[in-house]
Structures are given as structure tokens and as C-alpha cells.
Amino acid sequence: MVIGGITPEAFAFGLFTILTLGGALGVALNRNLVRGAVWLIVSLFGMAGLFVLLSAPFLAAVQVLVYIGAIGILITFAVMLTRSMTNLRERFTNQWWMSAIVAGLFFLFLLLGVVAPVWGSLSPDQAPAIVGTTEQLGVSFVDGNQFVLPFEVVSLLLTAAIIGAIVIARHQEEEE
Amino acid sequence: MDCINNLSLCLRHSGVDAGLAEFVSIFLGVVLVATFPLLVTILLIWVERKFAARIQDRIGPNRVGPFGLLQPLADVVKLLTKENITPTGADRPIYNLAPPFMVAAVLLIWAVIPLSPIHYGVDLEIGALYFVAVASIGTLSVLMAGWASNNKYALLGAFRVVALLISYEVPLALALIVPVMLANSMSMVGITEAQWGMWFVFMAPIAAFLFFIGSQAETGRAPFDLIEAESELTAGFNTEYSGMKFAMFFAGEFMHVFTNGVLMAVLFTGGWIGPFVGELPLIGLVWLMAKASVWYIIALWVRNTLPRLRIDQVMLFNWQFLVPLSIVNLLVTAFLLQVIKMAGLTPADPGNFVQNIPQTLVLLVGNLVEFGGVLIMLRNRGRRERIADAAKGLSAPVHAVGD
Lengths: 176, 403
Prior knowledge:
The complex is a heterodimer.
Chain A: H1 8-29, H2 33-53, H3 57-81, H4 96-115, H5 134-142, H6 148-175
Helix pairs in contact in A: 1-2, 2-3
Chain B: H1 2-5, H2 7-13, H3 18-55, H4 71-81, H5 92-109, H6 127-148, H7 152-183, H8 188-193, H9 200-203, H10 205-218, H11 230-233, H12 243-268, H13 283-305, H14 311-343, H15 353-395
């Protein structure tokens, strides 16, 4: 179904791009940290939408679950607990223009890679026709010939991080 | 008949353009799925008040309409005409966004619920994961409401929510994996269809129990209603909300409880599966609602008979009892499923009741053994505590009541 020359996919892509970029702008331009956190969640939500369009529903759901449901809420929570952070009026640093230039350069670099065929063209025909299902993803995580080792290493790393966090939290409690 | 089961086809037969017919049927479907839970809620408010009243030996609403049936409508009109107050110092955009988020978080779950063999929003391959992901938006809404109200009670309520909801999501998600393993599918449609032969509640009663408790906690109702503990927090996170904005939180909560009933029905008691579904698919909706109502009534029963727990009790119950139990339950079920596969007890035809019996028996016995182990551990623990108390009692006879 095409309405006015725009396919539904193109329309959805535009919408999610606006959400992602608009949310990112909101994060960068907002002085109020809580609003910044909410904008970050909007941006992450747009990313989840883009994952859906790329036929990766599993990644989209994980994006919402982990980034919005866990990390987004954690950031909001942390900001709220530090009361003085919710009402920032002055700038923390004067180096914002440096980060802006670096970010701008990165974006140009990326744009170059997509528009001009510097690192080989990215025509849609080159995209793999078969997109892996969630089942294949799950199998590849536990298959000895595929990603079982990286998967276990990451699990171990996360466990170590959790234990470290508990140790740090405990230490402070005893000092009080 | 055909028009009920396949509107798009029916419209095309009556001469409507194919694209338009498809659009109309999808659009109507979306409107239906989004409105149906909201309309059911209006009636559920009456059910809930009447049920609570009967438990507390009262009569309940009985003035407006027959049996007080029109009471919720009167309440809706009252809420609509109330003034919307925004407190000074509130963060307006976030303050106004929070209530719709609450409703949306619940409505989004309905998108993947199979209402009948052929009626469902979408058959997502990752339906179970989608449910967990969407549920986290509700947490966000409460947090936004609590912070944006610029009220200490509201913020305290919101802090409690984050602790409570994030903690109880762990056993909820771990219990959800069990039906996914049994059905070999994460799609809600797949999970329902896998229960033709046997309901999962017989194969995994402990998982059903864990999911029920987890979902009850997610709604933030007694015994988990610390979010709006009236005696400590006036009304918790929604203290500063009035009129329709408050009503949205209220509706979101009521809808969430019923949605949990529907989820229990889909995941553990066979969803729309029942007699005559093959001949008349729409009757599946009746079975689904009947099963959901049973779970809903149990949830109301729990809510109205148990007292509110303290925050430390709620946390201890979760981290020291529910989470370990859900992990052990997951491991035991996975192990038993492998044993069943090796012993060749997997039914050749999953839809056959008789062929399902050996598999179910193995899993049921496994669950019973697990339950026995839990009881023994609880007994030993209670005994140790009593002995410790008695030892303390010799030196200091006075100790706090309820500890």
C-alpha cells in the first residue's frame, strides 16, 4: 500500500528517526537532568523502532527491556536521588564546543561512509536476504561452535561487576 | 459469520478496494483492542467494589441502577467534571505525560494476547519478551508522576515503586520462561496452542504460583500496596493528581489486574481453548474471559484479605524466597524436560490429552518434590528463629511484637 509515494516503511523510518534524533537533541540541550533522562528514553525508544524495521524484533524488545526498563529508570532514579542535580542553572564545563566538534566530525565520517562509496557501496541488494530468527539467535548463544565462550565470558564479567558493586556499597555502610 | 471472522475478505466481496478493506479491518481491530479493556474496566470497578464489600460484610454500591450497576458510570461523570489541578512547581510536560503512559503500558500488552484462534493483534515471535518489556513502561510512568508532582510523599511513593517493581520483575520473568520452555515458543499464540492437550498449570504449578505473585506485585495492590500506603504517604505517587488524570492511573491499575488474569489464562490455563472453538472461533473469547475472571477473582480475594506488608518484609520475601525458588524451579523444569525427552515420554501428538499424561505426571511430581523441599526449608528456618528468640528471651524477656 503506497500513499502519496511514501511507503509505510519509509513513513515509520522517518518517524523513528525523528524520535531518535529529537530525543538525542533533547538530551544534549536540556539543562534539567530529569527531563534529559526522559528525552534519552524517547531516543532509545526510537532506536527500538528502527530495530523493528530492520526485522530484529528480539533486539527491539531487549532494547526496550534493558535500556528503557532498566538503564533509563536507573538513570532517572540516580538523578532524583541527587537533589541538587535536578535544578541545574549554570554550565558545568566550557568544553562543550569541543565535544560538539568531535561529535560533528564523527557524524560527517558516518555520512561519508553511507552516501559515498568509500568503503564499498551499501546497496540494499547486498543485505543478507535471510534474517536470523530468535530461535537461531538463542541456539548460537549456546552452540559450542559459535558464541558460547563470549557469552559465558560476558556473564562472568557481569557477575564480577555485581559482586564489586555489592562490596563497594557494603564498605561505605560500615564506615558510617 | 464470515464478516465476524474475516472482515477484510467480507468487505472485498462487497466490492470495496482491497487496500482500503485491509486498512479498515486493521484500523477497526486496533480500535477494538484498545477500547475493549477500557470498557471492561468500567464494569470491573463495580465487580471489585461489590466483591470487596461482601468480603468485608458490607453491601457495596446499591443505589445507582439495579444492584448499583450504574455506579461506575456515575463515577466516570464525576471524574470528568472535576477540576484538573496542576500543583505549583510541577514539571508540567512530565506531569501530564505520566497518566497516559500508565494506561498505554497496560493496553500494549493486549496487542499480543490471542483472544480466539483467529483473533489477535499481532503474533509476535517474541511475545513473552514483549510483555516483560512493555510492563517496564508502567514503572517509568509512576516514577515520572512521583517526581513531576513536586511533592515529597509522591516522590517517596515513586522510590518505593522502583524498588518493588524492579525486584518483582525478576521472579516474574523467570517464571515466564517455564511456559516458554514447555511450549517451545515465545509467541503468545504458540503458547496457547501448545496447551490443547494439557494446561500448563498442571505441568508447572510452582511457575504459575510465582507468576501470579509477581504480577500481583506489579499492579501495586495489597499486600504489595506500599506505593500508595495511605497511612504513611497520603496517596503515594498520585497524591497531586485529580480529575481525569487521576482516573487514568485508577483505570490503569484496574485494567492491569484484569490483564494479569488474562495473562495467567493465556500462559497457564489454555487461553481460548475450550469446547466448540473449532466450529465457532469467537466462542474462544468467552472461554478466555471466563478463565481470566477466575484468576481475577482470586487476585481480588488476596487483595481484600491480606494486610499491607512493610517494605523490608516485601523485599526479604522477594529476594530470599521468590528469586531463589524461581531459579531452582527453572533449573528443575529444564532438567525434567531433558529427562522426559531422553526417556521418550514426549507426546507424539501434543494435542492429545492421554499422550500428555506421562509427561505431566513427571513434571507434577518434580514440582511436588520441590514444594516439599521448600516446606522443609521454611520449617527449619522458622525453628532456628524460634530457638534464637527463646535464647534471647532468657536474657531480655521483652522483644518487639511482630518481629
